[in-house]
């Protein structure tokens, strides 16, 4: 209790809706920083003083790409830290640690007077964000009810889209500020965002599922009761304990090797699914667009810098609106897998339009086609891949390896993110401009059959019932979001008795 509220939260009298709001604000504010940092590079690369302070970046585009990519390299190490320590120390303490780390990194970048300091602080900033983006989806999923879990987990991605939109408008607001204020204040703004996470997480509870996994069953039951009521807590506690017992029976060892065990609960297959959907998110080419969208509009499409930054502001708003549609309509209504398939097909079309427009950029009409392709790509991505990758990778893996497997997936995402951001400045001109976009169009097209044939649908299932898709070492390729239409799962649901987890959810009127 000496470290309270870092080890034990304040406000233990909070319950119901106020507690849920506090927990969600705390968790989602960190994702605002993730989205913000993805887009604020546009403000840096258009500011002369930034290059004056760090002249090496102006001399070599490869160095510029590497320095910007240090953020995602740090994020990868943050994911691996979370993967190793998440089950040991719990969700909440690591969220607080990551928030403080990200805050220090943001302040350090804003005050950097040389390339070395900027690089170290960018790594540190990314390290904190990597922990946040790998632990927050797990935390939110574990404190949410099954029937609204997709929506609740999507709120963090709405926050990321909001951060991206805000960063575009910040770049526009400082477009005429060519001095140090233009880029230093742009970076420092994210520090204010992080204060919401730091304050609200002091009152948020620990994950009830993690508490039960750690043997603190009654403490976990009390957290569930505070969140969702006593009846739900009693029923959910029984199911969570049953799921833990099943997973432990399938578990033969510890550490990362267990994530790839080919056991009765298909740990290996589920880990590859978590890694695969995160890899698919990056292989759409999204960070080519978010980090260098201003450069694409200026150098590939031919816009003036002022016009390009202004267009980006509206693009950020459009992406945010599409993100709301994906998070609150597609994810639970259409399903996770179908949403990703729609995303892959839509992103493919967007990249084709972008490639076609850039290939004939001497024509004014081609410029409009390329701009439309960029808009379509970012809007479709925001509605589909952005919310689903983080959510699906956290849902598909079992509690026994959830932290390690889910964060391995996010770490792979950041590795690919690093590669894309690093090579874009040289790859676009090196492939004739349009060739790079055509490459991503082909990759997006290939994703459609892969997603359909290998990813079972989990929408509508509790985290414990997801295990039923992988019993006996076999994968049930669920296609529908309707539980009663899925064979064995339907039978399992039909036999739920009064007082069970799912029965309590059906008869309760509140969330």
Automatic annotation (TrEMBL):
The keyword Membrane applies. The keyword Iron-sulfur does not apply. It comes from the Eukaryota. It holds the Pfam family Sugar_tr. This is BY PROTMAP: gi|647402536|emb|CDR48769.1| RHTO0S20e01002g1_1 [Rhodosporidium toruloides]. Belongs to the major facilitator superfamily. Sugar transporter (TC 2.A.1.1) family. It comes from Rhodotorula toruloides (Yeast). PANTHER family: MAJOR FACILITATOR SUPERFAMILY (MFS) PROFILE DOMAIN-CONTAINING PROTEIN-RELATED, PLASTIDIC GLUCOSE TRANSPORTER 4. PROSITE patterns: MFS (PS50850). GO terms for molecular function: carbohydrate:proton symporter activity. Residues 23-459 form the Major facilitator superfamily (MFS) profile domain.
């Amino acid at each position: 209790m000496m470290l309270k509220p870092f080890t034990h939260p304040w406000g233990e009298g909070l319950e119901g809706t106020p507690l849920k709001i506090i927990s969600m604000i705390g968790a989602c504010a960190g994702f605002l920083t993730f989205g913000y940092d993805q887009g604020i590079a546009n403000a840096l690369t258009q500011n002369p003083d930034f290059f004056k302070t760090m002249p090496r970046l102006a001399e070599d585009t490869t160095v510029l790409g590497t320095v910007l990519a240090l953020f995602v390299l740090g994020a990868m190490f943050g994911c691996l830290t979370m993967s190793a320590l998440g089950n040991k120390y719990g969700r909440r303490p690591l969220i607080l640690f990551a928030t403080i780390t990200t805050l220090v990194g943001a302040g350090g970048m804003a005050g950097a007077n040389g390339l070395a300091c900027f690089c170290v602080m960018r790594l540190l900033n990314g390290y904190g964000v990597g922990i946040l983006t790998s632990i927050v989806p797990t935390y939110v999923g574990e404190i949410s009810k099954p029937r609204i879990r997709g929506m609740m987990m999507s709120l963090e991605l709405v926050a990321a889209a909001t951060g991206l939109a805000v960063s575009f408008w910040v770049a526009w607001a400082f477009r005429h500020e060519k001095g140090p204020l233009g880029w230093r204040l742009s970076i420092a703004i994210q520090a204010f965002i992080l204060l919401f996470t730091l304050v609200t997480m002091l009152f948020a509870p620990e994950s009830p599922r993690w508490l039960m996994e750690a043997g603190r069953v009654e403490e976990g039951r009390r957290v569930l009761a505070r969140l969702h009521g006593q009846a739900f807590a009693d029923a959910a506690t029984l199911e969570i304990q049953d799921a833990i017992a099943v997973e432990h029976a399938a578990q033969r060892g510890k550490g990362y090797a267990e994530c790839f065990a080919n056991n009765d609960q298909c740990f290996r297959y589920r880990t590859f699914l978590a890694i695969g959907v995160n890899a698919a998110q990056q292989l759409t080419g999204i960070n080519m667009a978010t980090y260098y969208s201003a450069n694409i509009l200026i150098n590939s499409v031919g816009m003036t810098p002022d016009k390009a930054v202004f267009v980006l502001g509206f693009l950020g708003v459009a992406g945010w609106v599409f993100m709301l549609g994906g998070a609150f309509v597609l994810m639970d209504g259409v399903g996770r897998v179908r949403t990703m398939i729609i995303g892959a097909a839509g992103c493919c079309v967007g990249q084709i339009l972008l490639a076609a427009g850039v290939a004939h950029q001497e024509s004014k009409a081609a410029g409009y086609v390329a701009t439309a392709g960029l808009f379509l790509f970012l809007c479709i991505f925001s509605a589909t891949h952005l919310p689903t990758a983080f959510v699906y990778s956290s849902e598909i893996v079992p509690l026994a390896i959830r932290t390690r497997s889910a964060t391995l997936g996010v770490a792979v995402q950041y590795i690919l993110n690093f590669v894309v951001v690093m090579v874009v400045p040289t790859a676009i001109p090196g492939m004739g401009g349009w060739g790079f976009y055509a490459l991503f169009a082909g990759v997006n097209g290939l994703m459609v059959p892969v997603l359909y044939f290998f990813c079972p649908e989990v929408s509508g299932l509790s985290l414990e019932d997801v295990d039923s898709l992988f019993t006996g070492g076999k994968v049930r390729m669920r296609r529908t979001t309707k539980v009663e239409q899925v064979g064995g799962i339907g039978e399992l649901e039909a036999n739920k008795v009064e007082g069970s987890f799912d029965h309590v959810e059906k008869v309760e009127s509140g969330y």
